[in-house]
Amino acid sequence: MKQYILLDWDGNLAQTLHIWLDACRIGLQNQGVTKSDEEIAASFGQFSHFMKEWGVPDIQKAIDDADIAARKLLPDVELYPDVLLVLETLKKQGKKLALITTSPLINLEQQLIKHALHDMFDAVITAEDTPVHKPNPEPLELGLKKIGGNKAEAVMIGDSDKDLGAAQNAGIDSILFYPAEHKKFYKLEDLHQHNPTHVVTSFKDIIELVNS
Predict the structure, then answer these.
(1) What is the pTM of this model?
(2) pLDDT tens column, 183-203
(3) d(CA 200, CA 202)
């Protein structure tokens, strides 16, 4: 049984992957760089690092352009089916919830208000809170510290190799959320290399897993 639930935002609670895919493509194309959907998806959470490898001339301008493009669409983002039900159920069961995201707070605040999630999380860790990001374990460890948890009773729920890698590096169990639409962004065999403890295609299956 898990008492401390760590959750990613983009592509896990919120249906933002298509937004960030298009936004990052715009940032790259403005710099004369073209990459496939798979390559861009692999850069999520480490966009600056990948752009250095891709030889992007002006990395900061590409980031700024991607942010501008994304912020036009982020206010309309919806949660994945059953996310709110799952969060409410876990809270009623006395679980401690921490949101762990690489997104900056400015991109998140409107969404938390829109979906009435501000009181749902016992801690929120954003890009500004740690000098390094997932797959480095530091954001998870900070979130766990803020909710007074321990690794044995914790689980990280996320959609990407960054989430699974962070959990693996922190020595925390993980649940991979992999609905059918994620096949466009991630290859399941690649995600399995990070040894998720469980894989779910429906978010509501998480309730049973964290209580088993």
Answers:
(1) 0.90
(2) 988 899 999 999 999 999 999
(3) 6
